[in-house]
Amino acid sequence: MSQESTSGREGPALREMEAILLELGWQVTRIPVEGAERYALLARMTDDFDVTLSTHLDTVPPYLPPRLDGDTLWGRGACDAKGIAASMVVAAGQLRDAGVRAALLFVVGEETTHDGAHAANEWIRANLPQRPRVIINGEPTESTLGVGTKGAQRVIVRTAGKAAHSAYPAMGRSATRDLVLLLAELEQVEWPSDPLLGETTVNIGSLAGGVADNVFAPSAEARLMFRLVTPAAEIQERVGQWAHGRASLEWGVMVPPVRLGVVDGFATSVAAFATDIPALTNWGTPYLFGPGSIHVAHTDNEHVHASELTSAVTAYVSIAKAALRRLDGN
């Protein structure tokens, strides 16, 4: 956490994690990811491993330095997800000592395009014919097992106007006005829902447009993110109907919703956020678990209790062993 690792600038944190893993006796492989000093880290003992503990080392901005206050660890990455990475390193060591063929996978780019997970997925397909059977992904789920996660769909909505002196409305058209009126209708659209994952939600993340307050705006755009509970095609169709003839659409990164594995003995929850899991399809049956709360992630008050990080070690070991027993029919 003392190393800033905002998405795209993960190099120093990767180097520090790699040094820790090597010191603990792991064989470490760098999986290349596009960009300077960007790669995923795979730590293993042999090519054949059964279970992988995985999370991401990139964070959202702004950087917040770490501070330990009693049992509370504050700072960027405390729960999302460097604290989780620490718990996983200890848990993987315990699994290894217990004879479980375990590995660790730390990726980058989770907060943006999931490019680290995609790179890892392609790497294992090309390099390891014997695939792992289970992957446990770490995100702050308040120490519950996720039974499912919503997906995500990004889209840029653009309107076009005609620049003119704002004193003469008949001479121009305001793209910003058109965009605002269009966005106001989002509340009236009936979005899909799912009995397990809940309601589709949409966030207007950013707005831009216009050149001056006395000029009709020639262009404007809004960046939206939908939290998906159904296939993306359903949202894309309804958004197309909503914007028809009034705006252009540029579809961005999509992460599908997923349903996940569970084992006995853990409380469960549904994650409204997206994860790397849909991009890690070659890594085995997915599970989702992590200490800390998503409600403080991405905020200036990001924190996690150190005692919860310690408890997560035991939880990861238990989930890994139970997941493998389940696959073996035991």
Provide a short characterization of the protein structure.
With 330 residues, the protein is an alpha+beta fold. Helix content is 26%, strand content 28%.
Number of domains: 2
Rounded mean pLDDT score: 97
Structural class based on helices, strands and sheet pairing = alpha+beta
Question: Termini, distance in Å?
Answer: 39 Å
In spatial order, strands of the major sheet run 1-2-6-3-7-17
CATH superfamily of the largest domain: Zn peptidases
Named at the architecture level, the CATH assignment of the largest domain is 3-Layer(aba) Sandwich
**β-strand number:** 18
Radius of gyration, in Å, reads 22 Å
List the total number of helices.
6
CATH topology of the largest domain: Aminopeptidase
Classified by CATH, the class of the largest domain is Alpha Beta
Which regions contain 5 or more consecutive residues with pLDDT less than 50?
none
Q: What is the general shape?
A: elongated
Helix content: 25-40%
Secondary-structure element order, as H and E? HEEEEEHEHEEEHEEEEHEEEEEH
Strand portion: 25-35%
Largest sheet: 6 strands, mixed
Describe the structure.
The chain is of the alpha+beta class. It has 2 domains: 11-149 and 259-327, 3-Layer(aba) Sandwich (Aminopeptidase); 151-255, Alpha-Beta Plaits (2-Layer Sandwich), CATH 3.30.70. It is built from 6 helices and 18 strands. The chain has helices spanning 11-23, 82-97, 115-127, 175-184, 232-243, 306-327; strands at residues 27-32, 39-44, 51-56, 67-69, 72-74, 102-107, 134-137, 145-149, 151-160, 193-194, 198-199, 201-209, 219-228, 248-255, 258-259, 268-271, 285-288, 303-305. The strands form 5 sheets. Strands 1-2-6-3-7-17 form a 6-stranded mixed β-sheet, with helices on both faces. The protein has a 4-stranded antiparallel β-sheet with strand order 12-13-9-14. A hairpin with a 2-residue loop joins β4 and β5 (72-74). The radius of gyration is 22 Å and the shape is elongated.
